[in-house]
Specification:
Elements: H1 2-23, E1 36-45, E2 48-51, E3 57-62, E4 68-73, E5 78-82, E6 89-97, E7 103-117, E8 126-136, E9 141-146, E10 150-151, E11 159-163
């Protein structure tokens, strides 16, 4: 008699467990929900835009903070930097140190609109950005061009940094 009652309760309990497991949402959340702005390095020579490798050591800091975003990178043709979540303007200080140990600083100010991005209720919120403008100093940098104003998960270049040519 007791076994019959156990079967009576066991079958509905197993059915409920199966429904719970099958009904659960299988969402693949991004492992890293920080988005990065991508900067490519170029020069304009002979009226042609050419990708270059910056041989100077490059350190990038978020101006106004003690945050080092990139520390002593060398021989690179592009960089990826995180953007602030809530600030309407990011200020990047770029320090270029050459082989003679002479450092030249340039600053880039990026104006942006921040907006939240939801993958699914089970995932953390990501902050995406829309670039509305850019200003910069012109010591080594000639021009900064916004190529793709949408900073999100998609791996595309957002800015082209053109350096003064040696011509």
């Amino acid at each position: 008699m007791k076994i019959a009652k156990l079967k009576y309760y066991l079958v509905p309990c197993l059915a409920i467990l199966v429904v719970l497991f099958v009904g659960c949402e299988n969402v693949e959340c991004p492992l890293n929900n920080t988005v990065y702005a991508k900067f490519g390095f170029y020069t304009l020579s002979n009226k042609e835009l050419t990708a270059i490798v910056v041989s100077d050591t490059l350190t990038v800091t978020a101006a106004g903070t003690d945050s080092v975003l990139l520390n002593k990178m060398y021989s690179t043709s592009q960089i990826e930097l995180p953007m602030s979540y809530f600030g309407e303007e990011d200020t990047l200080s770029l320090a270029f140190t050459n082989v003679e140990n002479i450092t030249t600083f340039d600053t880039i100010w990026i104006n942006k609109v921040n907006y939240e991005h939801f993958e699914a209720p089970a995932c953390p919120v990501s902050m995406f950005h829309y670039i509305t403008g850019v200003r910069y100093t012109e010591r080594l940098i000639d021009t900064v061009i916004i190529i793709n104003p949408n900073v999100n998960y998609y791996d595309s270049e957002n800015f082209k940094i053109l350096f003064h040519s040696a011509d």
